[in-house]
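Let's sit down with a protein and look at its sequence and fold side by side. We need material for that, and I hope you will provide a protein of your own picking. Once you have written the record down, we can walk along the chain together.

***
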Amino acid sequence: MSFEKLTFENPQGDTLAARLDRPKGESPCAYALFAHCFTCSKDLSAVGAISRALNRHGIAVLRFDFTGLGESEGDFADTNFSSNIDDLVVAANFLAREYEAPRILVGHSLGGAAVLQAAHELDSVQAVSTIGAPYDPEHVTRLLDDSIEDIKATGEARVTLAGRSFTIRKQFLDDLAATRMEETIHTLSRALLLFHSPVDRTVGIDNASRIFQAAKHPKSFVSLDDADHLLTTQADAEYVGVVLGAWAEKYVDRSRSTRETPEGQVTTRTGTAYRTEIQAGPHALVADEPEDVGGDDAGPSPYDYLLSALGSCTGMTLRMYADRKEWSLDEAIVRLSHEKVHAADCENCDTDTGKIDRIEREIEVRGDLTDEQRDRLLEIANKCPVHRTLHREVEVRSALRAPVQMERM
């Protein structure tokens, strides 16, 4: 993805810091606005993982720091839940003015409750998703149990949350207490997707149940199994992003996305880790290496994709041949594995030194087929285009492309 660092002002004149993550090499098909969790920031690793996944679906994501947090100006002590909603509306208006109005709102924890409220003020929004969101924003006060009496008695108190110190004032508690969510959720009138972990110790799973019950259809719920509240495990954050991206495609116009990768061409992008973004025509994929060799196992390895190409080509070729012959092939299952072996162990190889690549391919054909038909299908499998390519001499011509101007940051 490419990104820009941006700023805009809140109603009090404070400058809020934002980051716009955009699909690399294409114009977005839609824009999403992300609201981070209570006392967190836009730079939480889970937010980045979710943004990258949405980018792969052609969706740009604006994530920003609420007033007084992260890189944004302002005094956090002067903020409350209502001011967070105001910040969200200002961010959406900024997007509409400078780029395009958001069609999707995503909120994590208290940010989830905020996007449910803000959606009512944003006509452009068609879909809303929450991650570990509380049904009642006042739930946040459970994090302040040891300080609530001091706040009520003196008007404010310093509290430590996630290792950082914040000033919380009584107006923050009063604002949370005055917020009523049931009617807000019931009248949302947008598609809703809830993510929540059944073992979330910060915001219990009962919150998701209450939100789901209060909402009207279309609504969906995805359990995050053993994920923690902050999605600190990358695989959990990636999962949320993948599911969210697939769900959101129903509410965006994918035909508006223009990619630099034409049909029949593949573009890959590898950054500072092994993880590689793949664009195959309109299809976004991810490749990675296993953890035991230094990768994050975020996707199949390059050799996995090679086996996938051979396996899928084999199955398609059998399907085409059986259809042409009008044979009763119900299903073709291809199982493949790859290994390096000593050339001396290969009976049909031209060389007997060093190592060679060996692919084992087991083909299962199901259906009302004779033995002769099954034998013929095995012969046809060896004629699939990818199989032939692997057995031919292949020329790979490489050239360096001229450097391009750096992305604006």
About this structure: The first helix runs from residue 45 to 56. The radius of gyration is 26 Å.
